[in-house]
Amino acid sequence: MADLGADACACGRDCGPGDCPVSRARLGEPTRLQQVLERFGAESGMRTFQGPRFSSRYFVWGRGPALVLGHGLSDSLESFLPLAHHLADRFTCVGWDLPATRGEGLNRLPWIRHRDLADHLVALLRHLGLERAHLMGCSFGSTVALDALYRYPGLFDRGILQGGFAHRPLSGLQRWLVRLARFARRPVMRQMPKYELFLRKGNGEGFEMRDPAFWDHLVTSAGPTPVKAVCHQALWLDQVDFRPRLPDIRHPVLLVHGNLDHLVGPDCRETLKRGLPNHQEVVLHGCGHVPCYTDTEALAAVVEQFLGL
Asked: Phi first, then psi: what are they for 249, rounded to 5°?
């Protein structure tokens, strides 16, 4: 990401000299992925929750108010480990997987609909005895967050949408390719032709100044996702349009975007800004679509600031 210096604003809010949380966070000690994984192994671990329609992995890490973390298309809950590492001293971070992210219950995918994802999330919160929580959704996960905020408003205090959108249908060609890819002989994403090139084209911005272990972490997190699961995620996405619901979501919502995000463009951002009546916006300058990997420290800083801790 771009190094603008301690006195320059890097969050798009015209902060005064030395006041920008993003610039300050970027000047701190860079996150070491190995330290993150070792700490997670010592303090938490992966669990499995059998929900009403499907099972999923999840983790609970930290102490304080609950912050639920939902990942994007093709990714997994491992994407949130670096972020949770920075937040676990102040929040109980709950990461969870979309259905069949690691291949469990692939045969159930045709009977799962998008609305079942928010229902599963709420069932998980009740299983954990959490009466209220903050909610963060990244990319595809933002649509699950919007659905949960709309249908279960009393369970959530604040929302964070990173790289988010309310409506992003597939083109006719994309829809045909996705339906065809469900029958691909290569079962997981990392086995698809030129997968890493495809991954870098959409998510590569910001890794240049990062420890190479973070790119490997992205490949490791997203690569094992079954192709069939990703196809169903894309088809769920094709069917949802939350634009009419946005004015009824009264929670404070933070919109976080990277100005180098090539996957979610300005039109999607403007739709959220026009529709959500109580929103704030942060633009991470020099950042692409996956700040959980490339700009972890800055993302943690704006999350903490928005949640008031």
From this structure: -90, 100
pLDDT of residue 3: 52
Give CA angle at 224 (82, 162), nearest 5°: 40
What's this model's pTM, rounded to 2 decimal places? 0.95
d(CA 268, CA 285): 18
Q: Does residue 222 have a pLDDT over 80?
A: yes
Q: Which two tokens stand for residue 194?
A: 């030129």
Cα–chain center distance at 201: 18
**What type of residue is 217?**
H
CATH number belonging to the domain at 21-307, selected among 3.30.428.10, 2.60.40.10, 3.40.50.1820, 3.40.50.300: 3.40.50.1820
Give percent of the chain with pLDDT exceeding 90.
Answer: 87
Classify residue 188 by its DSSP letter. B
Tokens found for residue 68: 């639920």
Element containing residue 137 per DSSP (H, E): strand 133-138
Binning the chain into helix, strand and coil, the percentages to the nearest 5 are 45, 15, 40
Q: Please give the average per-residue pLDDT across 201-220, as a whole number.
A: 93
Q: Which residues pair with 58 in a beta bridge?
A: 47, 96
